[in-house]
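User: Just a sanity check before I run the rest of the batch. Below are the structure tokens for the first item. I only need the designed sequence back.
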């Protein structure tokens, strides 16, 4: 099994301050614009996980052209819709970057007969394929979100049109009733005058009915006017779009990992086993997108698991840490873990922060892992493309 150092990956234990981060206040980093630009690329190796918009060899004009094309195609009108389309454009841009890296690896390895590939070359090709697949799925998810928004817009327009049509129908119907009622009143008044009859009581009742007709028509006119008035900026911007009930739920596979030291030997037990967890995922619809491993260290963190944390107190007393990864990453990880004769699990190459769809988290560990995803500081031990 490959050896990973503690700095490769931190598990999400109970929120606690990482003392080593306190030293960062003594290091201010580069201050000049050129120095900041240079240092921002220090950890970039292949860029497949970099969130930097323009990397060396890429063009701002190309990105602007991509942005303008899709904005013109979808024409989002409010802030939430613009954000959806921008997310799709960014994922398209990152996919193009990943495809270029994939083609570079393909061209490089095409010169070597497949049976002669080394383990390192196999890993390089697998990693390039994994990045390409992940980028393609990100584009597909973003496209589904945009198409769902577009469909909801059409449905809202249809509902609005049907409601407006119904309002106009009610308005016309009540207007006709009012007109007929008014004609009846005038006819009764003329007949009463001709016969010298006192009809003040019935006329007052009829007038009251006319006022009710008028009030109803005024309400319908107000509803029609409100429908034709553009929504204010505040109503457009604040729609509760990030409320937990509106966020898409991420299907997750959960696995409990019990780590205990028995008779001086570290024992790792999985509940359920990887095979049973795969079967659980096969009956899920929609299929799982993430795997949560909950590592429970019964009597301290043994040396085989020092990669999970650098905190000495946690290593001494144990606790529970969470390892989050995509399903594709988990499938790669369990294949690698089969090579360990002791049956221990290992790092996944980059522990994911808690996603916003599941409440998000700003603890030091999740913030650290989120920064890793944004800045792409991959370790060469875990990244053959580096």
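Assistant: Here's the designed sequence for the first item:
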């Amino acid at each position: 099994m490959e050896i990973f150092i503690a700095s490769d990956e931190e598990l999400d234990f109970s929120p606690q301050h990482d003392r080593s981060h306190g030293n960062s206040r003594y290091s201010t980093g580069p201050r000049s614009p050129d120095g900041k630009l240079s240092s921002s690329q220090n950890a970039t190796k292949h860029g497949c996980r970099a969130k930097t918009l323009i990397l060396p060899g890429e063009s701002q004009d190309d990105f602007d052209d991509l942005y303008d094309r899709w904005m013109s195609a979808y024409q989002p009108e409010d802030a939430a819709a613009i954000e959806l389309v921008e997310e799709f454009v960014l994922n398209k841009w990152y996919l193009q970057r990943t495809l270029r890296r994939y083609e570079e690896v393909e061209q490089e390895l095409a010169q070597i007969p497949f049976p002669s590939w080394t383990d390192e070359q196999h890993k390089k090709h697998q990693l390039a394929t994994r990045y390409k697949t992940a980028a393609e799925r990100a584009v597909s998810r973003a496209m589904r979100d945009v198409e769902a928004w577009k469909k909801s817009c059409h449905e809202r327009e249809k509902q609005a049109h049907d409601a407006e049509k119904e309002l106009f129908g009610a308005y016309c119907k009540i207007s006709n009733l009012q007109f007929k009622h008014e004609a009846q009143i005038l006819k009764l008044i003329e007949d009463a005058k001709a016969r010298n009859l006192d009809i003040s009581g019935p006329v007052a009742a009829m007038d009251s009915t006319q006022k009710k007709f008028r009030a109803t028509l005024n309400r319908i006119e107000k509803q029609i006017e409100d429908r034709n008035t553009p929504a204010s900026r505040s109503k457009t911007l604040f729609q509760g779009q990030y409320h937990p009930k509106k966020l898409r739920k991420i299907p997750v596979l959960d696995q409990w990992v019990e780590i205990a030291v028995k008779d001086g030997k570290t024992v790792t037990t999985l509940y359920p086993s990887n095979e049973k967890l795969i079967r659980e995922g096969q009956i899920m619809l929609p299929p799982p997108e993430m795997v949560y491993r909950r590592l429970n260290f019964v009597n301290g963190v043994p040396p085989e698991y020092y990669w999970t944390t650098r905190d000495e107190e946690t290593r001494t007393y144990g606790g529970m840490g969470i390892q989050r990864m995509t399903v594709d990453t988990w499938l790669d990880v369990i294949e690698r873990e089969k090579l360990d004769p002791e049956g221990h699990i290992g790092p996944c190459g980059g522990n994911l922060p808690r996603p916003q769809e599941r409440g998000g988290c700003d603890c030091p560990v999740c913030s650290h892992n989120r920064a890793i995803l944004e800045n792409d500081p991959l370790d060469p031990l875990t990244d053959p493309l580096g």
